[in-house]
Amino acid sequence: MWKYRAGLLGLLIVLGMSGIAVCAGLVSPHDPYEQDVTARLKPPIWMDGGSRQNILGTDPVGRDILTRIIYGSRISLATGVASVFIAVIIGVALGLVGGYYGGKIDSVITNLVNVMMAFPFMLLALTAVAVMGPNFKNMVIVLGVTGWPIYTRVVRAETAQLKSLEFITAARAIGFSSLRIITRHILPNLFNTIIVTSSLEVARMILMESILSFLGLGVQPPTPSWGGMLGEGRTYMLTHWWLATFPGIAIFVTTLGINLLGDGLRDVLDPHQY
Amino acid sequence: MGPYILKRLGEAVLVCFGISVITFLLLHVAGDPVQLLLSIEAKAEDAAILRKSLGLDQPLYVQYGIFLKDLAHLDFGKSLFIREPALSLVLERFPATLQLTLAALAIALAIAIPLGVVAAVKRYSFLDNLCTMLAVSGQAMPIFWLGLMLIILFSVKFHLLPASGRGSFFHLLMPAFTLGASLAPIIMRMTRSKMLDILSEDYIRTARAKGLRERAVLFRHALRNASIPIVTILGLQFGRLLGGAIVTEAVFAWPGLGSLALSAIRNFDYPLAQACILTMAGIIVAVNLGIDILVGALDPRIRFD
Lengths: 274, 305
Hints:
Mean pLDDT of chain A: 90
Oligomer: heterodimer
Number of strands of chain A: 0
Helix content of chain B: over 70%
Helix content of chain A: over 70%
Structural class of chain B: mainly alpha
């Protein structure tokens, strides 16, 4: 029961964050790019010198931190969802082909997965983004194109298992084409696995985005992104702790929510695993 | 055992070959090193000269051939900025990363294994829920943020630990804990789930029925059997550990392979970046090969799988 409640909490967090991201313009108190040199590095509201206008304080050029965190949610969620979407399409397609046809093509795909898995994912993503040019589009493409092997592994194993079941033999005996069997009979049986895996992957991709932006190889300033804000805040860590603290909390809460939701989905959709 | 080792070795060689292809394509095809190295105002003639001096004017397959030949001689070329052989720079930094990852691994195991065992033994108890919550939170924690918070707490506020650099044992504590904390949740969840599987096995019931003490049942019978899948998972997570080391080293200015790789990538120092990527990937392949062979030796069932 505890797990379901945790999953529900995850769902609430995810819905809340998505709501904030969609309505960023309505809920944020300021303009995320608006600089105010007279209000530089203001502390949060509860500290001496804090004001009601900047609840979480301001950054070195006087921009409102809360506003930038709210707008930053757009980058994080968009990166997470878009890169997972790309990875799912590549990964599931390869997994289906490998698992269904087997033989040489399967061994090529399996070896490709092994190669990708042996690569330090972080290093691969960092290098690819640096080479292609650090911006939002390239980051999403890189995360998507490097994040597919996990789906191929899961989908390939399950497809190979499903293939030997009677309903697939029956479908073949009726004379259905391979394409029809894969798309109409095998794929729907894999939806649960794909949904659970990809929900957890969204969280991982959000973390990856924040790392890339933190290291200066992701979304470029002045566009507000949580990782980028943390990178900027790092310079002021010794004197102004809030700059690096609040964006991190935003990343933590969001990925926690998505992970809780993903775990909850697994319990509901795939109970035999536990 | 012989054929099994040969098979795994063959797979490892294949993976290394694949890695060399991807690294080469990434650095030579996805981006043009010459363009990345020169400023925008550079003349076309200068670009041509640089291209020729780096051997980048050759057809791609020739370049890859030369790259492979050099690789076979462990010659990664010279760093474009530091002007030293890339391999010697990598080897110079390697001990720092090894120290960091081993310390992180030790911390992760020291946290995760006891918690995983307790969570499995006291299934669905308050303690189990607490451990699960800790693991879920740990997985959601951005590793670099944890590092920054530790610095704010232990260096800035309490002045207990040095914020950056390498030297004494105290320099190692925060980076190792940060990196270890990123790995611990996965090991903990794996330990819990494997222990749960094993604790419901017949031989555990037999061990209990013959009157063994619970401690002996848990540690001598259950945990020892759970250790094989845990070690396998460790191998699979080794890439994540090295990836985490890049970020941890950046946060704590730890002079290891990760920070070297990062600066090479940032400066488009592609021979050095190449050396870093291939070394890290090579380590991951070697660790997994070692674990596969070890596990195969410990559990004969795996050899015939």
